[in-house]
Task: structure prediction
Amino acid sequence: MSSRDFVRSLPGGSLPGVRRLNNMHLDPLLLLTLLVVIAFGLVVLYSALGKDLAVLDGQIIRMVFAIGIMVVAAQFEPGVYLRWTPVLYAVGLVLLVAVLLVGVVVKGSQRWLEVPGLPRFQPSEIMRIAVPLMVAWYLNDRPLPPSLFNLAVSLLIIVVPAALIAKQPDLGTGILVGAAGLAVIVLAGLQWRLIALAAVAAAAALPGLWFVMRDYQRDRVLTLFDPERDPLGAGWNIIQSTTAIGSGGVFGKGLFEGTQSHLDFGRMSAAPALRYTARAR
Result:
């Protein structure tokens, strides 16, 4: 893709503000949608925090920082990302291996790296971007929809980092990284017949996942279906969420009026609380 194609692919507009955004390589509609979602999330967070501005200020700072990164990233032509994607992917793989060898253990998981002069970080976060970029890089100059060979190579690009992440263990991030890479394959024009076959195979293999899961992962699944088995521990959030839905109904109690988020758990009487405590013991 040339520089001219990069400019031509942007939406047109006659308003000065729209033209300015186009010159910055930003899609006005996409940017507006993003800002609306962010604003809505901040309002809901403000309500859930009981109007605590301290936490909200920190979240706003992170949002502004993220938007700034987005604006800067939009100024680079796609060819720049195409050239640097293999480097980013290779560095990410090396860092994932380093995590397994010399990573920092936090709460039983070895997911972090400490590099002198840098804050502690998780290399798995790099792969959230690197994996879909790498799949797109590989399929970029190959016939679409991908052949079985190219599909196998693409899956290998996805599976290797996802498996390294799951071994930390961080099954959630591993699944997200895998899903991001698979989304690129689907958008590359993968036949619906193959998608259906893959879905059936995944569903058939799902029960086998139980035997390779760790104890805490099995416990999360069991708690999801039976939160009462640990009401004051792993099941606490599920129970409170269920109570909040039952208390607020379909439309909720209204903005800033929620009781569960303000530690007023439906004004639960002393008797149920004592039963919960006794059961937990």
Q: What stands out?
A: The first helix runs from residue 3 to 8.
